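Example record

The entry below shows one chain as it appears in the dataset: sequence first, then structure tokens.
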Amino acid sequence: MNYQKLDAALATALNEVQNPETPSLTVFIHTEPVLDSTAIAVLENLGVSGVTPGKDIFTATLSANAIVQLSEQPWVQHLKLSQKLHLVNSRLNFRKLSV
């Protein structure tokens, strides 16, 4: 596995995976801008949808084994774990805003 292509959150999540064959991690796959037919076939075989020419960022839910395989591909620039975003201040206190 090429850990240099993984962000810290993804590297940590890979260590916590129970079954490396089960697709359980949603990741962003950043590739080179122009992919050859072999690279496109690899992505499609792993279940990545929407692989079209000119696109270089893909989202997919992958197994730990698939992430290891992708990290070793020369046309993959980096892999990043997708995380749910939370609003920092989801409730506004309108009394503080009034004059």
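Notes for this example: The mean pLDDT is 88. Strands lie at 25-31, 57-62, 76-81.
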